[in-house]
Amino acid sequence: MKPLWEEFNQLGTEMIVTKAGRRMFPTFQVKILGMDTLADYALLMDFIPLDDKRYRYAFHSSAWLVAGKADPATPGRVHFHPDSPAKGAQWMRQIVSFDKLKLTNNLLDDNGHIILNSMHRYQPRFHVVFVDPRKDSERYAQENFKSFIFTETQFTAVTAYQNHRITQLKIASNPFAKGFRESDPDSWPVAPRPLLSIPARRSSSLSPCLLAGSMEQEKDPNKASASTSRTSVQLHHQLLPSPEALLAPATYRPLAYQGLYPGASSHLGIPRARPAPYPLPNVRTNGDQGGLTLPAGLGLLSPTAVHLGPGQDSQ
């Protein structure tokens, strides 16, 4: 990933550090040559400060400026590759990736993550350690390892990206950041919905006549073709109210409380004409038949069933 590292380095690479730990992107990857195929090696990384300064980002000039002296050094830690130790043949077989390495700013971290100070600059270092099988390997400890530094991998530790160009480049190049990418509306597979749409009804909600018509069409398509237009029109009228009901303004007449119950008190505080238990006005007793004649305007009974007497049924 050397070309990608160089592209970030030209802008000033930034790496997020969090309390829980955050993985690096670009990921540190190496290709190793020249090992003894039968010998065992351990691979590890550490991070050293580039200087003794603390930085801040100036947004008006899009540049990093020195903000003061560096904070106290964090506890020094190393990160062993999870496959260590392994034979040289295994290390040289493929690219070695440190994708499990995480950066944190938690000084009390107990997960083994690399502890860094935010707003400080660091240089990653890569170490290859030969696992010496000799009993007196301590005597050769200074000879059994080799360190590598790639200057394009230096970065500034931050808790949030400062340079918007770094943010854009990370979103564009990180496969795990596809959720932050803007999608092109022209590439959307689904066409935009119309402003007004008619929901389709299930076949079970249709009337029996429509179901019978569809069954006849399945039995005899030629016979049913003549009634296809009529069936679609009937279905259309069943699904939609009349155009007059959709377009006409509201013509509902406000119904007053006194219209239903004459003599009831109004909102102005006028008392009833007659207190209970006396009968309400407009209710006339029919002494001959023993029934009640109710006004037809109550809206409770039809005009043909207003007068009810003993032994009479409503029409």
From TrEMBL:
Keyword match Chloroplast: no
Subcellular localization, as worded in the UniProt entry: Nucleus
GO biological processes: anatomical structure morphogenesis; cell fate specification; positive regulation of DNA-templated transcription
Recorded superkingdom: Eukaryota
Chief localisation class: nucleus
Example of a GO MF term: RNA polymerase II cis-regulatory region sequence-specific DNA binding
Alphabetical list of Pfam families matching this protein: T-box
InterPro entries (alphabetical): p53-like_TF_DNA-bd_sf, T-box_DNA-bd, T-box_sf, TF_T-box, TF_T-box_CS
GO cellular component: chromatin; nucleus
Record's protein name: T-box transcription factor TBX10
Species name: Sciurus carolinensis (Eastern gray squirrel)
